[in-house]
Amino acid sequence: MLHRTIAISIASLAVFAGWACSSSSPQCQVGADCASGACDSSGHCVPVTTGGDDSGSSTLEASVEAGVESSTEASSGGGEGGICQPNNDGVVTLAELPMAAGLHANFLIAENVTMNTAGTAEPDGTIDWDFSAALSGDHTVIITTDALTGQWFASQFTSATYTSKLSDTETFLGVYQGTTSGLLLQGVVTPTTTSPETDVSYTPPAEIIDVPLQVGTTWTSTSTVKGTADGIPDSTYTEKYASVVDAKGTLKVPYGTFQVLRVQTTLTRTVVPLTDIETTQTMTFVAECFGPVARLTSQTTTAPEAVPGNAFTSVAEAWRLSP
Average of pLDDT values for 232-258? Predict the structure, then answer.
């Protein structure tokens, strides 16, 4: 049976560490202090740049590396797009969610750790989360979004936008499609056909992110998953993704501080025809123009479907954006 961590979007995991700061004195404490919506770990605002007639190309390249390219351009492969500047209005739109091949970022990842995922409630209804402290087993991983060109499964997913790693402990790649309404998961594959091969497709594709995102947004999808799973041909199971944007607030990660929305997703996987059920919860913290800056995945259980909003403390994988 295919065992993997929930396939939550890492569409916008691009390098942020290339930004430089011009002043040695602190400029900010939280992302809301900055026009860009992000305060780095040294207390300086991540700058917002705009392109001119001559410098636009190089500026845009820098912005792609920094994960702030307009996702309207990124998801469509063209168009006018431009530089994405967070407005901190509590809504993440399509243009504020990069979805493109060729992005990469450093993430600190720890496995099987205990964390306070609930955060601290503030009087105004927002929540403060602090995931900046070192965790046991922390290690830096470069996460990339890669074009399908040249990959062995490319001909099966002709409308896909990119592939990316699903879990730090497994080799599976998610095959994603960026659309005008969000991000879809079309399939899961292994990087090569070496046994045990995995090559499964989702019908219909699973809805991973729906835009616009704001507190109260919900979406659900159920997919039939078929193909070769862990070397077993003709495998069939279903996956139900139930997501809700249940909170907003301030998040500290090793890279810095961001204004974020929290997306709670419950994945329920049912094996056909055995009706064996596995449930996994994931919290994804999304910042305008930067996309996911942290992702916490619970342990997989065979208990009844978890209730989104419950703050789990036993974390199977903790991903946090890092310099």
Answer: 95
